[in-house]
Each structure stands twice: as structure tokens, then as C-alpha cells.
Amino acid sequence: MSALKIKKGATSHSAYNLRPTFSDMAERHTLAVIVDNEPGVLARVIGLFSGRGYNIDSLTVAEVDHEGHQSRITIVTTGTPQIIEQIKAQLGRIVVVHQVNDLTVEGPSVERELALLRVTGEGEKRVEALRLADIFRANVVDSTLDSFVFEITGAPEKVDAFSDLMRPLGLQEIARTGVAALLRGD
User: Fold this and answer.
1) Contact (Cβ atoms closer than 8 angstroms) between residue 61 and residue 13
2) What do we know about how this protein assembles, alone or with others (predicted)?
3) What are phi and psi of 89, to 5 degrees?
4) Phi and psi of 60, rounded to 5°?
5) 109-183 CATH pick, 3.30.70.1150, 1.10.287.90, 3.40.605.10, 3.40.1170.20
6) Residue 29: which pLDDT band, with cuts at 50, 70 and 90?
7) What is the mean pLDDT of residues 86-94?
8) pLDDT one-digit tens code per residue, 39-66
9) How far apart are CA 16 and CA 19, in angstroms?
10) Treating both helix axes as pointing N-terminal to C-terminal, what angle do 81-92 and 41-51 enclose, rounded to 10 degrees?
């Protein structure tokens, strides 16, 4: 039987070395992908993620160039720097993909999300829901005697904070669009 000896002070890559290095830390990235607007393109992009076990935190897609028949897919995902680089490289190899931008590393960006929230409640809960909506600059887009539908636009963290505050006040349902993002400046 042979034994493996490791010199004192040498580092090993084993399951017992649990201290994460900088490159092991998962980061949130926002990717903007310009693709041909044709059937099956979104399925191919999503298939890349699901086939490799990558998660998508947010996904939005819309045609951005009617004459050129191109769409923009905005994907928010989380992974180590190596995984993010692998995702970008694999996206770039898909024939119908024209451009892949990592907005997280290319500079400051603006991210916004739209959400609709249906909140039911009576009395003080109803008053408190309206007060919080005013603070968060959410609009009432529908109202009945026992419920409101609020529309809120902002950074995903703002939408999260508003929905967290609405839960004890009677949040019944929420619909979110996903992140739309652009680089700031030129």
C-alpha cells in the first residue's frame, strides 16, 4: 500500500479544506444578451442554463430592434467568477447570439423591476397598506372595498422590501416582471 505524504505547510485541495477562497464566492451577475428574434432561441438559451445546473434568478426578454429582428434577454444569475465566465463563453457560442454583456463588471448600471401586489385587508391594515404604498411610491391601480392592487417600480431590493412589509397586512398575490437593466452613461 502506498501512502501520500504532504509536506508541512503545503496546501491541499480536499473536502476538509473548507475555507472559501475569493474565487469560490458566488456573485450575482446581470447579463444582457442580444439574440435573433426567432422561434426556439429562448429555449436554447434557457437550455444552456438548465442543462448545466445553473439557476436563473430573473429573466426578461423583448424585441428591441424590429427591423433587425433582434431581442434582448436580460438574465440575472448567481455563480462563482469561473462559472459566470463559463456561462458567458457558452452563450457566445450559440449561433443566434450576437452579443453578451456582463453589466455587473462593465460598469455602473441601472436595474428596475415592475411588480403588481394584491393586498386584502380592513380597517387599520388597509390604512397602513396605503401609508406604506405612499412611502414606497407605489401606485394604486385597482381598488375594491376589501382589496388594493399596488404597482411598484424600482430596484429588486425595493420590491422585496415592499412585499415583505405587505405580507402581514394581507398580501395575497404578487406578479413580478423580472429585471430590466442598462449600463449608465455613454
Assistant:
1) no
2) Dimer of large and small chains.
3) -65, -45
4) -135, 150
5) 3.30.70.1150
6) very high
7) 92
8) 999 999 999 998 888 999 999 999 999 9
9) 9
10) 150
